[in-house]
Amino acid sequence: MRVDVVSIFPAYLEPLGLSLLGRAQRLGLLEVHVHDLRGWTEDRHRTVDDTPAGGGAGMVMLPEPWGRALDAVRRGEGPEGPVGSAVPARAEDGAADDDPVLVVPSPSGRRLDQRLVRELAGEPRLVVACGRYEGVDERVLVDAAARYRVLPLSLGDYVLNGGEVAALAVVEAVGRLLPGVVGNPTSLVEESHEDGLLENPAYTRPPVWRGQAVPDVLLSGHHGEVARWRRQEGLRRTARRRPDLLNALVAADPSALDAAE
Ligand code: ADE
Hints:
Trp Operon Repressor, Chain A; tRNA processing; 8 helices; elongated; methyltransferase; binds adenine; tRNA (guanine(37)-N1)-methyltransferase activity; Alpha/beta knot; 261 residues; 11 strands; Alpha/beta_knot_MTases; single chain; 2 domains; alpha/beta
């Protein structure tokens, strides 16, 4: 998968070079390019924002640098020209299915969840457009829809200063699902949200720590009992912390919890 991120704070994205995602890039499993939006400005001050039409607080990002940036990145170019592996040109017949997904972080976007993460992990190309301030001029998104599948995306119902933290979250959540990125793929199946539930509590050595014992069943060696305990504890935790998830699971499949009895 190739990911391009456009931001006025490229340094914000440096952690993408660390840990599992850094290793994934070195192994060629994931290609990440971070671009400075100011590279597509044409004035002396490298201006990227202006006051909102109609008045009000804050600043809105200008359409011109974003338009140039998204045109170039679509072609696989940064401000200085081509970068990374070649990208397919847009099909003559305008087959929109082949267009890259343009992720636009915004508190007014679709909420990111593991289902969407899985969908995005099946894409060959993602472009993330990190806005700041009060957002990006709306015409940029309308215009971009001619060569991207535009996906306004929210991390949750709260407001961040800009899209960079969301870009980190998306690339990490998606990147770890790419084949070969996580060493033991079964850990991807057994974790929170993969089956619509939160994961059970986890324990390791020592068997007793500060007066608290690891639950006996986990030390019993009975795999069936351990699996049953994990499922029950996952359910218990979900009911307590995220009853909304449990309700959604039962609404989608009324027999979803039958195996828990
Ligand atoms: N930018 C500002 N707030 C955001 C949020 N909640 N999710 C994604 N991007 C954002």
